Structure formats: C-alpha cells, structure tokens
Amino acid sequence: MEDVAALVEVSRDRALRRWASSGVDNDSDGTRWVQAQQQGWAAGDRFGFAVLETQPGSVRAQLVGNVVLKKVTSGKPAAEVGYWTAAHARGRGVAARALEALTDWAFDAFEADGLERLELLHQVDNLASCRVAQKSRYDFDTLLPAAPPSFPRDGHLHIRVRERLKSSRLLRTG
C-alpha cells in the first residue's frame, strides 16, 4: 500500500494508459489495484511484483514497473506474463530484466504443478513490448485477432518454454 501514490503518479503517463488494461486515476483506484494484486496472491492464480529501483543516497526505492504471472492453474501447462514500465525508466532494459527474473521464478516455483510454457501477449502496434519479448527469449508464435474491449487491436503471442536441457548439457560437457 505504500506504493499507491507512486502508482497513481506513474499511471498518469499517456503511453502507459494506452497499453494498460486498467487505469489508476486516484488513490482509491490505486488502493483497489493493490488489493487486486493481493487477492491474486491469496488465490494463488495471479502473482504481481512491483519493480523497484534504489537510487544512490535514497532511503526509499522508486517504483519503475510491474511484472505479473497470471492464469496460473495447477496441472495446466501454460500461464501468462505481463509487465509495464514507468515512463522515467523506459529504454534502460528494466522490463526485460524484470521479465527474465519473473520467468525464472515462475518456472522454478511452478515446475511441480506442471508449468511448461509462458505466454506473452501484446498489441501488434506495441513495438516496445515486442522488443522486450525478443530480448527475454519469448519467441513469436502467432498473430491474434482483436478481442475488444480488453484487447482492441490485433496482437502478438510470444511463447517461452521451460528449458529442460540443463542436466543434459552438464552430462555432455562434464
């Protein structure tokens, strides 16, 4: 809840509003958004993380983004990832690094539940998200038709499959 004011400030960005599925216009919206994240954790089907950055000399970390693992169901081989980056942090690789950390965590945390692949969806004209997907080794899979109102434009589906080759690589090299 201590990030609500920062969330409201970050959400004023027009570019973020264009791509985000929900708007945060004031403290009440911000509180509801944070509570929805908490409910996802409690239900075990949506796991949102604030992406924070500490500046030298600062006592408090600054909100620079968010990553989320959603649609997690035990026994279901796929889940979805999402992210956003604050305007003041764009162009520095924040989203790609946060997505990579989320990806590693998701595959580790939900391996026993059968999680095999992660899906990343973005609108076709969101070129920055496409670059983040590519940098994070999410391969382009297919073009998706628009599904208004939550997905008003055609989109891209990118997929990342859990790597299973680590032990076999060790055997070959070692």
Automatic annotation (TrEMBL):
Keyword Transferase attached: yes
N-acetyltransferase domain ranges (all copies): 1-154
Keyword set, alphabetical order: Transferase
Taxonomy, superkingdom: Bacteria
GO MF entry, a single one: protein-N-terminal-alanine acetyltransferase activity
InterPro entries named in the record: Acyl_CoA_acyltransferase (IPR016181), GNAT_dom (IPR000182), Ribosomal_N-acetyltransferase (IPR051908)
One GO CC term on file: cytoplasm
Cited Gene3D superfamilies: 3.40.630.30
Annotated protein name in UniProt: Acetyltransferase
